């Protein structure tokens, strides 16, 4: 029986942080190890170029770092296909064919694109590549005939755009060669989101409020000790608020079953007063060190031979290209343009 295919990935515009780990990486490793799916995980460097074309060194440097992050959390090239988007030329060709099936007005109506254009402050200088990247995403998804695409709730319009393209292509060329994907979405609006250390709603590279998977424990310690807690909890004996307190929020996310009783006791103690922020932060550090220690160990091990890391990516890219080439051949046959 053929396994359902999952496609997922990240834009390589910097090292990955705990927000990525909680939001997607941990789940990818779980899906990989369940052995129920065929998993394609890619570094979306072409998509990153849509708004970093004049600063491509960031992307080049980030490829190695993101690959190390993938390997360190447990993604295994023997179980999942890890590849680099730009190394699969078939994706660009598929994008070109799909562009003819989507109107400019439809792209401009895409809520995700509209929101991101506003966030990035492009004004009238929107790079064409950025405007059409939903079509590029459709090429990524359909090239591997992905059945499932794990994304945040804000990406629902992108999945729907891909589904429209699939329906349009299959109807226009009277074929069934493209597969209509389903999105896998978080269970709630806040699920899979990790707030920043400063209490900001989202951990973000641009805000500098994150703990990176590559941070050593000394760096993690400094960051945790600076975390936002309860600004009114000035003295140890003062009653404290746990709502909006990042230490307790992180404890809720990273504590394991065996920790829950102690975490609950700490919450009650903090709320009635007599428990200081330093003590709660030290406890969180213990919890995070337990989670991060094996990740750090694997990262250091893989980082000793970056040549081998890029060899893994090369092998994964070759395997991915073979799959994409087969889909492209079917697409061209359906369109009647495989002339020779």
Write a structural description.
The protein is elongated, with a radius of gyration of 22 Å. The protein is mostly helical. It starts with a strand and ends in a 5-residue tail after the last helix. 34% of the residues are buried. The mean pLDDT is 94. Helix content is 56%, strand content 6%. It has helices at residues 18-34, 45-52, 56-73, 89-99, 104-109, 111-120, 128-131, 133-143, 156-172, 217-225, 246-254, 260-272, 277-303, 306-335, and strands spanning 5-10, 38-43, 81-84, 148-150, 182-184. Strands 1-2-3 form a three-stranded parallel sheet.
Can I get a quick summary?
The protein has 340 residues and is mainly alpha-helical. The chain contains 14 helices and 5 strands.
Strand content: 5-15%
Q: Give the distance, in angstroms, between the N- and C-terminal Cα atoms.
A: 34 Å
Q: Ranges with pLDDT <50 over ≥5 residues?
A: none
Order of helices and strands: EHEHHEHHHHHEHEHHHHH
- What can be said about the biggest beta sheet? 3 strands, parallel
Mean pLDDT: 94
Tally the beta strands: 5
The count of helical stretches stands at 14
Estimated helix fraction: 55-70%
